[in-house]
Amino acid sequence: MTTVLFTCAGQRVDIVTAFRHAGATTVAADIDPLAPALYHADVRATVPAFTDPGYIDALRELVAAHDVRLVVPLTDLDHRELANARDDLGGAVALVSRLDAIERCSDKYEAHTFFTANGIGSPPTWLPEDVPDDLRFPALVKARKGFGSRHIYRAADRDELEFFLRYTTEDSMVQAACEGEEFSVDVFSDLDARCVAAVPRTMIESKGGESIKGKSIKDAELMDFARRVADTLGIIGPANIQCFREPSGELQVTDVNPRFGGGFPLPTAAGSQYPEMALALAEGKGLELRFGDFREGVIMTRFFSQVILEDTGDGLETVS
Question: What are the φ and ψ backbone dihedral angles of 71, each rounded to 5 degrees?
Fold first, then answer.
């Protein structure tokens, strides 16, 4: 069985569980001993913060101790550290994109300029000092390095725009609000940064920037668009691509998260086999193209759950 180390495991019980169902032995690591995903893994470990100089050393020790073959980050936090240490993880494969792709995805303004330079649709976007006088409203004030729905403000007119630019504490940009339907596409690329699969889904409802209701759809245009975005960026492993289909029919990308997305349970239930594909990469196997090889019309509606623990004096244990 291939052993997988999940970093910044947090609340991603869904991902850890899916890899276990795919046949992996799972090791979950987090700075917080109460991170729920720790208690759904075969092995759990607490590690220093990703900013700690000893963070990679701690991961390397886990790789050696448990014969880890694959390292999968579950948030954006430690992508840079893992990308820089890609060849120094004791032989384990780091399922993370190259540093240039990570940097582009982390700065939404830089991502916008990259997409437009490569002929990929992106909503008109400006730095605050470059906003045109004839800006069409509504418009969005968005943190350049925000995540989820944090630090995003919708301005109905010029007065609100100027207010939100003064109000926000983040380095921000101004972006035209899209008018069409929003979609999310979960893609997977091999270690040569070749996109091999894409599962589009509708965004029926989201909270805090995370999809809680959606439906898988077989939309060839969305799959091709997502493949182009992933290949142009140089994505390795999973990514979640958010986009709008505008009334004109143009597809415009609004965000790319180079990791498994918050709506991961939906493409998994639809038959994406992304955990199995990740394990195949760890075993040195090649991947075949699988575009459209999933079930359409699978609907996800999410709910809160919990892990109940007991302090036994010798550590925390789950309560059955």
Answer: -115, 125
Domain 3-95 belongs to what topology?
Rossmann fold (3.40.50)
Give the start-to-end residue ranges of the domains of the chain. 3-95, 124-176, 179-301
Three-class DSSP category at 271: coil
Give the single-character DSSP code of 40. G
pLDDT in tens, the chain (320 residues): 999 999 999 999 999 999 999 999 999 999 999 999 999 999 999 999 999 999 999 999 999 999 999 999 999 999 999 999 999 999 999 999 999 999 999 999 999 999 999 999 999 999 999 999 999 999 999 999 977 667 899 999 999 999 999 999 999 999 999 999 999 999 999 999 999 999 999 999 988 777 899 999 999 999 999 999 999 999 999 999 999 999 999 999 999 999 999 999 999 999 999 999 999 999 999 999 999 999 999 999 999 999 999 999 989 999 96
Q: What is the pTM of this model?
A: 0.95
Instruction: Give the position of tokens 């954006």.
Output: 76
Pick from 174, 183, 255: nearest CA to 216: 183
111-120 long-range Cβ contacts below 8 angstroms, 24+ apart: 111/255, 111/256, 112/173, 112/175, 114/233, 115/229, 115/232, 115/253, 118/232, 120/228, 120/229, 120/232, 120/253
CATH level 2 (architecture), domain 124-176 = 2-Layer Sandwich (3.30)
Residues with Cβ within 8 Å of 100's Cβ and at least 6 positions away in sequence, in order, are 234
**Side-chain half-sphere of 223: how many Cα atoms within 13 Å?**
16
Dist. CA 293–CA 304, nearest whole Å? 30
